[in-house]
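Notebook p. 47: complex prediction with acetyl coenzyme *A.
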Amino acid sequence: MVDIREVPEADIDRALELAYLVFNDRPEKEGRERHHALLARCGRIGAYDGDTLVGFMAAHDFRLSVPGADLPCPGLTFVSVAPTHRRRGVLTALMAEQLRRATAAGSPLAALWASEAAIYGRFGYGGATTGVTVQIDSTRPLPLRIAPDRRPLRLIAPDEAQGVIGAFHEAARAARAGRPSRSPERWSREWLAEQAEDDEELSPPRIIVLGDPGEPIAGYVLYRTKPEDDSGPVRTPGLVRVEELEADTPAVAAALWECLAALDLTGRVTAWCRPADDPLLHFAADRDQVRVTAQFPALWLRLVDVRAALTRRSWAAPVELVLELTDVRLPANAGRFRLKAGPGGAAYEPARAAPDLALDVRELAACYLGGTRVVELVAAGLVAEHTPGAAAELDAALRTDLLPHTSDEF
Ligand SMILES: CC(=O)SCCNC(=O)CCNC(=O)[C@H](O)C(C)(C)COP(=O)(O)OP(=O)(O)OC[C@H]1O[C@@H](n2cnc3c(N)ncnc32)[C@H](O)[C@@H]1OP(=O)(O)O
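Predicted complex, structure tokens below:
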């Protein structure tokens, strides 16, 4: 029988050993120190078999941008169960404790990035944002259907970058739902770290901003490069890996993409997680040159307190519906509720009337940020529509101008 309890700071190294074991990882000293410092700042839950740590989960103290608000949202990470204790309910017990803590702390949401998409639905998590991988063949110029912004481009040193792009990133976070807050530590230890965590061949981060001197910037790109490899039988051209690109206008985005595609001694640009509505996919003149090579659920979201989550976001259109909600992990969310929402605010109260829609909390989580349409889940047989048109009505109210998106993997 395992005991679920707080992992004291003195056990962080044991938690890391367990994580490296299950993730088949062996970081260098610097990486270990970075992980140690990260876990010291996180909430930590352990599963102990006697004195042995056999399960672990950490939670960042994040806020998440949702339509019209920024809500507390623990970000789960380092979820690890020892190979000797698999499939005996250890993760299930850690998740129950995490949900208990999030409820006690008044966090309406919780979020994570999944190592495998099959794991977290059973705990009420739904894929709430979509990422697409974009590959540009940059062995030739990038033709565009719009005129790029011709204001100057400027390189920024990584140690100055947070001061220059931090506020821009924060504004972009508010404009698109689904983005976790980024602490100064995460900026410096992850996004602006000299060494990319997943690939030691990549260059330090390069940051290019666009804007007139003395004026606020109008956009930025953060990227890393890898030199061409001609050691094998097939020459691999130099790579530009885009970590983040944010722009005020399509013309600014066009200038930044054009600049990336024109970097000397490189022949491919890869952006591993862009929004599905990235303007590049429309203004690129040759979509054979700019390809979407993958699409995946990125941020998984849990509505911990459904009422708080629904009443604290903004709504695009009026809606009044009775929802029949199931939630086996958090029964306080289950039951029949009337949602009455609109641009003026929202109410969500217990109801007796027949339901218009019946769904599980994981489906509501998938739709909450406006990234998945309820009508699609009706078509997939996952949501029951008892009143014709109810799903479309809820979609119109949940809708956001920009699709929710984040590439902030944690
Ligand atoms: C947010 C993050 O950190 S993502 C990282 C997740 N961690 C990893 O991938 C590291 C390697 N894997 C592990 O450490 C473990 O196998 C874990 C954490 C994925 C699962 O831990 P376990 O203690 O074995 O899970 P537990 O026994 O509670 O299983 C709960 C249910 O999930 C299912 N499940 C567990 N892992 C998986 C999986 N990888 N794929 C599909 N289903 C799974 C179980 O079959 C079980 O199903 P049931 O409720 O129908 O019986």
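Notes: Residues 3-107 form a domain with the Aminopeptidase fold (CATH 3.40.630.30). The mean pLDDT is 97.
Next step: compare against the earlier run before touching the bench.
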